[in-house]
Each structure stands twice: as structure tokens, then as C-alpha cells.
Amino acid sequence: MSPLTATQHKSALALFFTALVLLLLAAPRSYAASAGEIDQEVDKALAAFHKIEGAKAFLGIAKGVLVFPKVYKAGIGIGGEYGEGALRLDGKTVDYYSTAAGSFGFQLGAQAKSIVVLFTNESALQKFRASEGWKVGVDGSVALVDIGAGKAVDTTNIKDPVIGFIFGQKGLMYNLTLEGAKFSRLDKR
């Protein structure tokens, strides 16, 4: 048997890493959380979100709040992310959703993040709820709030109908995007 050429070696490695990423992405899906588990995690994520200076003001203007408490991202060249969450109106869960996205480029490792998407007008909220699957950048845009360390979130400068926040244990994360993320309704009832 002859040794692998450099091209064959790269192809085999790419195939291996693609399979690994798909396996990592399938793992969170294989453990589909119950409605009660999602609601508990959403409560925790909203409590963490409240600690971000200025976040309460945004929640005050929101017609609906979509919360993904744990979105897992993994990648080795090719990456993907997945998470489950809930849409809340007036503080009550009305629907459950998943988010999924893929990416290509330099990336290595895994991380978890929380996402909060606020709908600030009724029209945007109704369009989202009526969709079969809502993809950021295609079905609507999300103004991602991006602030540096030590700065407060300010509602006076943001007038977008859909506003997104990505945060971790240490507060808001920046230089991240929701572009290409797809939100799909889940049947959890």
C-alpha cells in the first residue's frame, strides 16, 4: 500500500474533523430538554442578563423576548452551534425555539454563550412568530448590541425592531455575530 499524498492526507483530515464537528453538534440535540428544563434555564439566563447595566431598560421596551440560555459552538475549521430556548411575552413562555448556525474559516475549540433577542415592535414580533424558520440576515436583521468593557447599554441610540445580546459568565461578549443563525419553533407541549 502506498503512502498518502499530501492532498489525500488533507482530505482525510478534513473529513475526520467534519465528522467530529457533526458529532459534537448532534450531542446537544440528542439530549432534548423538556419544556420545564428550558424554562428553568431561561429564568437563570434572564437573571444573568438583568445584571448587565442598562439591560432592564431594554426589557422594559420589549414586546417579546427570545432567550437561548446555552448555545454551544464547536469547530475545527468547520464549525456549528446549537441551542434551545423560549419566547416570552409578558414574562410567560408562549413558544419554544432552537437556534442553529454553521461557519467556515479559522476556528478551533468550543464555547457556550447565552443569547437574548428582543422584539421592540409588534410588527417584527408577529413576522417572527408567523415564520416557519426565521434566519438572521434573510428573514430579518438583528441589531447586535456591542459594547466594550465597563460601558453601559443605552436604549436612547438604538431604534431597531429586533435587538440581540450575546453574553457569557463575565457579561456581554463582543465581536460575535448572529448572522446566518436560524431560529426554528420546537414542539415542547
Description of the molecule:
By secondary structure, the chain is an alpha+beta fold. It has one domain (6-186). 30% of the residues lie in helices and 39% in strands. The protein has helices at 6-30, 35-50, 55-61, 122-130, and strands spanning 64-89, 92-119, 133-135, 143-144, 162-168, 171-172, 182-186. Strands 1, 2, 3, 4, 5, 6 and 7 form a 7-stranded mixed sheet that branches. A hairpin with a 2-residue loop joins strand 1 (64-89) and strand 2 (92-119). The longest helix is centred in the first third of the chain and has 25 residues, at 6-30. It is globular.
Brief overview:
The protein is α+β, with helices and mostly antiparallel strands.
Question: Helices and strands in order, then pairings?
Answer:
Blueprint: H1 6-30, H2 35-50, H3 55-61, E1 64-89, E2 92-119, H4 122-130, E3 133-135, E4 143-144, E5 162-168, E6 171-172, E7 182-186
